[in-house]
Amino acid sequence: MNTRKIKLALTAGLINRSTNNNALAAVKDLMNNFVDDAGRFIGLTPLSNRTMGATVKERYALRYEHCTLNVDLLSYPKANHQMVQGFQLR
Q1: What is the pLDDT of residue 16?
Q2: Beta carbons of 48 and 59 less than 8 angstroms apart
Q3: What distance in Å separates the CA atoms of residue 75 and residue 59, rounded to the nearest whole number?
Q4: Nearest to 73 by CA among 61, 59, 62, 90
Q5: pTM
Q6: Cα–Cα distance between 80 and 73 in angstroms, integer?
Q7: What residue numbers bound the domain in which 84 lies?
Q8: Is 85:8 a contact under the CB 8 Å cutoff?
Q9: Domain tally for the chain?
Q10: Predicted local confidence at residue 65, as pLDDT
Q11: Beta strands in the chain, from DSSP E residues, in sequence order
Q12: CATH number at residue 83
């Protein structure tokens, strides 16, 4: 599995995405391009959810056959805006 290629494509894809609502769906869509490397999607597990004032910090694990992608999100519910703060591919 070429993790460097996946990380680079995820970073570029997230920078170039046009919508700001549902960043998790955008990550999942981008990972669909790497079925040969990551395998098929198995499931999504919420790991944490913290409210910090008007911001919500969430962490999810997207599980694939050959790897797990942990995604950190920042959500601004009043503005209906969501962004990826970081991710780790394991």
Answers
A1: 85
A2: yes
A3: 11
A4: 59
A5: 0.84
A6: 13
A7: 3-89
A8: no
A9: 1
A10: 92
A11: 41-52, 55-64, 68-76, 81-89
A12: 3.10.450
Residue 3 has φ and ψ, to the nearest 5°, of: -65, -30
pLDDT of residue 81: 83
Q: Amino acid letter at 37?
A: D
> pLDDT tens digits for 11-61?
998 888 766 668 888 899 889 888 888 889 999 999 999 998 889 999 999
Sheet of 41-52, strands arranged across: 41-52, 55-64, 68-76, 81-89
On whether the CB atoms of residues 87 and 10 are closer than 8 A, the answer is yes
The residues, ordered by sequence, that sit 6+ positions from 85 with a Cβ below 8 Å of its Cβ are 57, 72, 73, 74
Q: Which of 83, 85, 73, 74 lies closest to 19 in space, CA to CA? A: 83
Distance of alpha carbon 49 from alpha carbon 26, whole angstroms? 19
What's the Cα-to-Cα distance from 43 to each of 11, 26, 61, 85, rounded to whole Å? 21, 15, 8, 21
